[in-house]
């Protein structure tokens, strides 16, 4: 099964370095949306069945209504693709999150704080997300996997980090997964 893994798009992030140039700032925000649109076009053109988004799709504090509608419309264009989102520290699954305030298409699954699991054929997808702007570390080493399936972990975290606020993940705890979709680092093993 073909899949695409993306993270840290930060749609509607304020362009602090461009604050003095409104036109350039506006153009940068549009370029971010077009990058996302290119991912959606790639998925459509290549019959990709799985899209993994490892957090920070948008900036919760600044995201605009039009941007969320753009995201939802984009997901509707790939209705035959399973979309899995794990909220990150910039788009946490809080009460007033766009994830809670808008209706996302049926092909979209959004992981919460507690570990969730979805099965698609012979693939098991495990994930959890931020439910606040900071979280501690999740214990991935105790997850029992089915060795007869392909096991994927999707989460927003830092590999071998030590901040205690951003889901620091120890590499040895996730080596058992066949693919790990993190925000800045992915590791995989051959089956």
Structure, described:
This protein has helices at 22-45, 65-77, 98-101, 171-174; strands at 3-6, 50-53, 82-85, 108-110, 116-120, 123-128, 150-155, 158-159, 168-169, 179-181, 186-188. By secondary structure, the protein is of the alpha/beta class. A five-stranded mixed beta sheet has the order 5-6-7-10-11, with no helix packed on it. A four-stranded parallel beta sheet has the order 1-2-3-4, with no helix packed on it. The protein has a two-stranded parallel ribbon with strand order 8-9. Strand 10 and strand 11 (186-188) form a beta hairpin. It is globular, with a radius of gyration of 17 Å. The protein starts with a strand and ends with a strand. Mean pLDDT is 90; it is low at 185-191.
Topology:
Elements: E1 3-6, H1 22-45, E2 50-53, H2 65-77, E3 82-85, H3 98-101, E4 108-110, E5 116-120, E6 123-128, E7 150-155, E8 158-159, E9 168-169, H4 171-174, E10 179-181, E11 186-188
Parallel strand pairs: 1-2, 2-3, 3-4, 6-7, 7-10, 8-9
Antiparallel strand pairs: 5-6, 10-11
Helix pairs in contact: 1-2
């Amino acid at each position: 099964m073909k899949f695409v893994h993306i993270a840290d798009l930060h749609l509607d992030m304020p362009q602090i370095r461009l604050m003095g140039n409104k036109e350039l700032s506006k153009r940068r925000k549009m370029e971010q949306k077009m990058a996302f649109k290119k991912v959606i076009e790639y998925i459509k053109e290549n019959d990709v069945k799985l899209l993994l988004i490892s957090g920070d799709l948008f900036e919760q504090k600044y995201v605009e209504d039009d941007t969320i509608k753009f995201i939802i419309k984009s997901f509707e264009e790939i209705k035959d693709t399973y979309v899995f989102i794990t909220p990150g520290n910039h788009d946490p699954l809080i009460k007033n999150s766009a994830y809670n305030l808008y209706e996302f298409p049926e092909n979209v699954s959004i992981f919460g704080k507690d570990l969730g699991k979805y099965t698609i054929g012979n693939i098991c997808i495990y994930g959890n997300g931020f439910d606040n702007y900071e979280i501690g570390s999740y214990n991935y080493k105790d997850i029992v996997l089915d060795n007869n399936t392909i096991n994927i972990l999707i989460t927003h975290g830092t590999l071998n980090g030590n901040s205690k606020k951003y889901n620091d993940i120890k590499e040895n705890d996730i080596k058992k997964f066949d693919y790990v979709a993190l925000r800045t680092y992915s590791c995989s093993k051959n089956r």
